[in-house]
Amino acid sequence: MNIDRIVKAAALIVPTLAASTLGAGAVTLQSAYGLAVDQSTGSLYIADASGGQIDVYNPASNVISLFAKVVEPFSLAVNSNGLVYAGLEGSTGQINIYNAKGQFINTLPTPPGDYPSTMMFDGDNILFEASGYCNGGQAGLNAYGGDLSLPYQAIASSRVAAPLLSSYAQLQSYSCLGAQQSASFALAYDNGQIFIVLKGGFNVYDEQTLLSGNAEGYIIAFNDSVTTIPQLSNAFTPWRINHLIAVTGSPFAATVDANHNIFYTDSNGKDIAVTGKAYSNGIGGGVVAPKTLLTNLPSPPYGIAFDKARSRLYVAFPSERLVRAYAVTYSTQNGVKVPALSMPPMLIK
Q1: CATH number of 116's domain
Q2: Which of 39-43, 120-124, 129-133 has the highest mean pLDDT?
Q3: How far apart are the C-alpha atoms of 256 and 263, rounded to whole Å?
Q4: Would you call 181 exposed, middle or buried from its count of C-beta atoms within 10 A (0-12, 13-18, 19+)?
Q5: CA angle at residue 292 from 258 to 133, to 5 degrees?
Q6: Is 1 a member of any domain?
Q7: What letter would DSSP give residue 270?
Q8: Residues β-bridged to residue 273
Q9: Number of domain units in the chain
C-alpha cells in the first residue's frame, strides 16, 4: 500500500461536523491514520503520517500530545505490557517499538516489498502484521515476537517452531479472489482466532493451528449479492457453525470490542460497519448481512480502535485532520449484544 498515494488523496480538507471537541493540547493533527488503544490506561495512540510523528491522547485530561517523532508512521498496535508498535511505510517498511514514555526500543524488519499497513496482537503478545493490500491477487500474514520480556520468550518458544524475537515468520500466503484482487484488508483478533477482514468475504484461522504451520483457513467468497460457501468436511462442521461472518464494502482497518463484535472502516464507501459471530445464523441459514453503523460520512474513515473500559470507538479521518470518538451502547437481541453509536461524536484534533 503506497502511503504517498493515500496521503495525497486525503489532502482536501472537509468541513467538520458540529460536535464537542476533545484534545485541545499542544499538538494539532495533520493526517491521522492508524489508531491503537492501551487497554490498561485508555491512552489512544495516533499515527500522524504527514506530521511525521505519533501522538497520544489522554482521555482523562482530554489532551493530545507528542509521543514520538518518526517518518511516515501508518499502523499502530499496543501490547498488554504497554509497548507501542508503529508500522512505518517509508522507502522500506519496518516496525518500530516504543515504551509507554515514547522511548525507542527496537526495530523489526518486514518481508521484502511488504509494508506494515495493518497490525494487531493476540492474547500472548505475539504480533501479527500484513501489508493490508491484495497486490496482484496475493497477500501474506506474518508473525513477530517483539516483546523481549522473559515470560514472552517462554510462550513464543513453546508455541512455535522457533522463538519469534526480532524477525518475522511468514505464516500464510493466500489468494485474494475476484473483486478482492486490488482491495485493502484488515486484521483482527478475538478469543484465539485470527480474522482477515477483506472485501466481499473473510479468512479466519485458529491461531494455535496457524502458528504451528498447519493452518486450515476457512474462506467465504462473495460475488455481489450471491454467497458461495465452500463444502467442508464433517470435521470442520463446528468451525462452519461458528464462523459464518459477512463483510460489506472494502475494509481498511478493524477492531474488536468485549462482546466479540468486529468493527471496521470502509474508506471507499465512507462507512463504519460491524460484523462478527452475532451476524451469523448457522448452517443452512446463509450469512446475515453485517450492520452498517454510519454511512455517507463527510470524509473517508481509515484507522479504528476500541477502548473496552470506556466503551468508546475511535475512528480516524485524515482529510479532516481529526479523530472522532463515538460512545457505544448495546441492546440485547436474541442473547447477543448488538452495538450502536451515540451521536454526535466528540472530536480529537
Answers
A1: 2.120.10.30
A2: 39-43
A3: 6
A4: middle
A5: 80
A6: no
A7: T
A8: 264, 292
A9: 1
Query: Which 8-state DSSP code applies to residue 344?
Result: S
pLDDT at residue 240 in the model: 39
Query: Cα separation of 302 and 323, whole Å?
Result: 10
Q: Which of 208, 184, 56 lies closest to 122 in space, CA to CA?
A: 208
What's the CA gap between 326 and 179, in Å, rounded? 31
User: Residues 6 or more apart from 4 whose CB is under 8 A from it?
Assistant: none
| Residue 41 domain flag | yes
Structural domain containing residue 151: 17-348
Amino acid at 221: A
Q: State the cell numbers at 38.
A: 492501551
The conformation of residue 17, written as its DSSP 8-state character, comes to P
- Residue 11 lies inside a defined structural domain of this protein: no
Question: Is the Cα dihedral 167, 173, 198, 72 positive or negative?
Answer: positive
Instruction: For residue 69, list its beta bridge partners.
Output: 53
C-alpha distances in Å from residue 112, one per residue of 108, 139, 183, 205: 13, 13, 20, 24
Q: Is the pLDDT of residue 288 over 70?
A: no
Q: pTM for this structure?
A: 0.81
With respect to residue 325, please indicate whether it lies within any of the assigned structural domains.
yes
pLDDT score recorded for residue 45: 98
